[in-house]
Amino acid sequence: MISEEQLHTIDNHIHDWLKGLDELMPSLISDLKTDTKSSRFDLVTNVDETIEARFETFLKTHYPDHQLYGEEFHHQTDTLKTGHTWVIDPIDGTANLVKQLNDFCVILGYFIDGQPVLSYIYDYARQHIYKAVRGYGAFVNGEKIEPAVSKPLKDMIVSFNNKVMNDQTIHALLDQSFGYRLIGACGLDSIRVITGQFGAHIHTNAKPWDIGAQFLFAHELGLKMTNFKREGIDFTQGGPFIISNPGCYDEILDILNSDGGYQKV
Ligand code: IPD
Ligand code: CA
Ligand code: CA
Q1: Where does the chain bind Mg(2+) (predicted)?
Q2: How far is the CA of 173 from the centre of ligand 2 (A)?
Q3: How far apart are alpha carbons 142 and 29 in whole angstroms?
Q4: Radius of gyration of the chain (CA)
Q5: Which of 57, 75, 156, 180 is the most buried (most CB within 10 A)?
């Protein structure tokens, strides 16, 4: 582990690095270049690639013994659970960036020997830096985020990708919740849960970089974050993921696991 002083030094350094993106973003966005990856819906841009490359340079310069695991260029997973590891999604919600110029974020998670110790979700368009510091809680632009107040599903908005669930599960979630919304960036859908605006965000196949920051926010705020069997998620693997207010967590998992499960046949 590291001392409290070192933790705060790194926190301040990362905060400055994130704010430094403000100078870079306008020119990157005005010169937006978009490519497709696995399908026409799977996009990558010069913004994604430049941010991940810059974070690599930042680590090499200031923290050369820290490892990086990132969506675009950093896929080595052998030693991530030992020592200092950063997980980055340089742009989460790339489709939103391309189509709406809004509702995208940078996700960063810092782990020491597999334990999350610092986490950031930067909603650049709204200029909101969300962070969690192990033992100190969670903050938005320096203001404390209150721990979760338990609420039942009937009073909460839920968020999930409706393309990947069967109709029965979707209708049960719609009928039993207050309502449905999807932002389309896992980090920002999760932020709505972190701030108490949504009851839960569900992702049936999250990648490690989609959820690298959420572990610590959940830990600090008393939220549930597991797979659909109510087990912890390996931060190097990802997989089925729910982040939820504790008051509606069991109700949602009962729906996902009932009558043969949520998957399309
Ligand atoms: C995507 C977003 C989206 C989720 C996708 C992710 P990306 O991340 O988080 O909400 O449904 O599965 O791939 O590709 O924009 O970083
Ligand atoms: Ca992502
Ligand atoms: Ca991404």
Answers
A1: 71, 89, 91-92, 210
A2: 24
A3: 27
A4: 18
A5: 156
